[in-house]
Design brief:
The structure is a single chain. The chain is α/β, with parallel strands linked by helices. The chain is built from eight helices and six strands. It has one domain: Creatininase (Rossmann fold, 3-Layer(aba) Sandwich), CATH 3.40.50.10310. It starts with 15 loop residues before the first helix and ends with a helix. A four-stranded parallel β-sheet has the order 2-1-3-4. Strands 5-6 form a two-stranded antiparallel ribbon. The chain binds zinc ion. Zinc ion binds next to helix 2.
Amino acid sequence: MIYPAYRNRYLPAMTLAEIRALPNKQHVPVIIGTGAIEQHGRHLPVAVDALLAEAWLERSLALLKPETKLLVGPPTTFGKSNEHSGFPGTIYISKKTLRRQLLSIATQLHTWGFRVMRVLNMHGGNTAVLEYTLSEIESELGMSVGFLRADVKMEFSEQEELYGFHAGEVETSWMLEIWPESVDMAEATCEFPVSLDDPGQLRPEDAPATFSWASSDLSDSGVMGDASKASAEKGKRWMEQGSRSLAEAMENLAERSAMTGS
Ligand SMILES: [Zn+2]
């Protein structure tokens, strides 16, 4: 088996001549997946965010019409995960390196003739850096850039919704769907930084006063959520729904780009 399955849309699988010969590159969006290598509790591998970026791409690309013009760049697996640095297995890059990396990718895509790029980001710690770097790319290079996001309606408790930050019900369910052998459910714990009825100083991230956290201050196990509620059935349902919405977003993007280049 040669990875990934979407080799016909995968820029690193193409030869120099094939890339040179691609028609209308300025109208063809390129997707870049971003993830992280960081602790995900005792029950999940450290590559969860990097693997999920690949899995979402693989599943949503499989739903695209064959004639849809859209390509995928090389994955960027390391992320800005200094908030998880208190745990073994976390290998993070700085915000400066993450910015430089995305800027370099965009600059080179631009040199080859591409003008449309979207990021599929699976790690919340990357978001702020990616946002300001994307607007820098837009103003400096004049490229059309932005995020691709899966729209998934997940039904879980208010506690999980407000304080399930990491390695909890959602990520564990997704991993049970994409790679069940990598999940040790016997070690899947429930640990929330605070309880819903007694939040103390902590408030959800969309509260008027937000907080910045280091996971070692909030969690002994590395989990912030209820991983024990995860199931393969939920993972399958949520990934199917999310992949469909991503595929739809990609089709729309490709269609708009074909007409306008953005
Ligand atoms: Zn994660």
